[in-house]
Amino acid sequence: MDAAKEIENGRAGRKRVAGLLAAALIEELEVAYGQLASPPEVQSVRGPETGLVMVRGRIGGGGAPFNLGEVTVSRATVRLASGVIGHAHALGTDRRKARLAAIFDALWQEDGQKEFVERALLWPIAVRLADEERLKAEETAATRVDFFTMVRGED
Amino acid sequence: MNLEAEALTGGFAQPVFNAQDIFRMVMDGMARPGTLKQVAVDIDPPAPLGRAAGALALTLCDQDTPVWLSAGIARSAVPGWLAFHTGAPQTREKAEARFAFGEVGLALSSFGLFATGSQEYPDRSATLVLEISNLETGSPLTLTGPGIAGSTVVRPQGLPESFLRLWAENRTLFPRGIDVVLAAGSDFLCLPRTTKITVKEN
Amino acid sequence: MYVAVKGGEAAIANAHRLLADRRRGDRSLPAITIDQIVAQLALAVDRVMAEASLYDRELAALAIAQARGDMIEAIFILRAYRTTLPRLGTSEPLDTAAMQIERRISATYKDLPGGQLLGPTFDYTHRLLDPALLADAPVDEPLRRAADTGPVTRVSEILREEGLIEPDGELPPDHVTADLTREPLDFPMTRDLRLQALARGDEGFLLALGYSTQRGYGRTHPFAGEIRIGEVEVELDVPELGFAVSLGRIQVTECQMVNQFHGSAKAPPQFTRGYGLVFGQSERKAMAVALVDRALRAEELGEDIVAPAQDEEFVISHSDNVQATGFVEHLKLPHYVDFQAELDLVRRMRREFEEARRASINPEAPREAAE
């Protein structure tokens, strides 16, 4: 694998982890944290803190961007004893969630912990999200209009 | 320490309280031009940004304040550090910058490219934080103007050669103009645009 | 002139205590929880989020509870809260084409890719009060049906393929996206800024303006090309990572109005568009925004400005209900001194008026006798 591709894959991996951690429920994070062999030594680098992100839309759906309104976002950056740094950003005001998510982002980057994070946390989140999405799509599909044509007149 | 770690660590331990302390110092410093201020907050900005300049950046810069960095600073870990801790966008255009940071020995040919505000909004101007060698051993300069009872003397060492001429030009723009903070390590002093600087006659 | 008057501290404190009591109401009833408001008054929550311009269901529900259900008060509280938080950044523009659809209808095409998906709509209900809700009767689970997956084409894309509709709405490449929370409003304004103002505008005000265009005050011949409601991913570019990450999903409502346009010597005949995008499930609001967005493009499209809905300064200056309520309600505040001054003035004018009248009835009567 060439270097550029490796970096690209690395990014895709981090992006996937960040997305799943942002979608995690606090309960899922707490359960996985409780399953760690020993709680990691963690230093706060930034936050956890809550702020706003301005959300943009596009005129007409695909045109020039415009500012739609803000969302609350909580974020945290932590450093493990090994020096590995983890980041987390998620909608909402739950700073505990942001901190735990940042810890798991860091643990995922450690070779010895990656497998545990995938199995105990990321996999269950991904499964839940897929289930929720399918359920919603199927409930919506049941409200789809099936048009039929009324035959009128003789011919 | 790798570049990433250097860019992420060394910020305020207590962002709210630390920023409040520093803000108070800058406010007092601008109200009393030439007063020597010392930053005691324990931060560790990447070189070549000094502790005082770093603390000012963390306090004053945010998402809405484009920042201009001199070449030496722009090449260092500072851009990443500023982006991480303040969210401030970096600009190459001096005219867009609300804050500008210059390293020791910076050659300044003009202040003119920095925003000087408008007659209606003279506050829409840049504040230049200039790192110099020290604030104690230079040849004496006399400051007069608002916020100074009579006159006061400062001794900045390592000012750009053109500084006094540029400053005189800056004063003619009033109420427009830029404001300057001279920083050296943990120390800084403020030179708002109202302050008149003359070489002290011995 | 302003004159400070002190006093009333005890009355104010007692009034607030009374407010808290009335808000709680009958103590024999369980207190309503924030979760219940989020779950069961979801559209009230959505309206507060949209008009406060802050997407956070829990905080919006808290504001509704605190405001005793007064929506504008709740919007005001949430707006005030948002000013206490720092801004961390600006998201990547939402991709509404990639929305997970919960409802999607078109009034212009019967059969369209992705189909007409009614979703949880009030349409086709009989608007009869439902006594079943009084008894908390059990509610059936929704039915399910195999779903198509993948993105659902926007109706505007279908017309675009034929070249019969204008593009999505571009601004000059060097245009910096305007933000009314950072710069004071200035007229005339660009369409991006108008859409931001309309997204947080008062639903009732925009509804009335949209309605006025249908009744002939600035007609635009609208068709609801497409309305879609669903969740979209919010992505933030994080400098320390060097790429954009997902923050989670938010629900939005998008309305594409298709409007008639006669064309000109320069422009070929084609449909024009009005666009509405709003936080939450808020179909009426998104439609009203799209109507008003189109009406406000009158000047851009070379139309005569003859109606209120086409008057940018009128619409945008009066669409914000927090500003409006602030200025209307400030009339409650003490104006004792202003009023005394006016009272003196009216008394004096009245006296002069009476004197002048008496003088005209009886020109010989000495002035002193009249007093």
Inertia-based shape of chain A = elongated
Strand content of chain A: 25-35%
Total number of strands of chain C: 6
pLDDT averaged over residues of chain A: 92
Content-based structural category of chain A: alpha+beta
Pfam family, one (chain C): PhnI
Protein name (chain C): Carbon-phosphorus lyase complex subunit PhnI
Keywords (chain C): Lyase
GO molecular function (chain C): lyase activity
Structure description:
The complex is a heterotrimer of chains A (about 160), B (about 200) and C (about 375). Chain A contains 4 helices and 3 strands, in the order H-H-E-E-E-H-H. Chain A has one domain. The longest helix of chain A is centred in the C-terminal third of the chain and has 31 residues, at about 110-140. Helix content of chain A is about 50%, strand content about 25%. Chain B is α/β, with parallel strands linked by helices and about 200 residues long. Chain B starts with a helix and ends with a strand. Chain C has 3 domains: about 10-80, no CATH class; about 95-120 and about 150-170 and about 175-325, no CATH class; about 335-370, no CATH class. Chain C has helices at about 10-25, 35-40, 40-50, 55-65, 70-80, 155-160, 190-200, 205-215, 285-295, 310-320, 320-330, 335-360, 365-370, and strands at about 55, 85-90, 100-105, 220-240, 245-260, 270-280. Chain C has a 4-stranded antiparallel β-sheet. Chains in contact: A-B, A-C, B-C. The interface between A and C is large, with 53 and 83 residues.
Main features:
heterotrimer; A: alpha+beta; 3 strands; C: 371 residues; alpha+beta; lyase activity (chain A); lyase (chain A); Phosphonate_metab_PhnG (chain A); Phosphonate C-P lyase system protein PhnG (chain A); lyase activity (chain B)
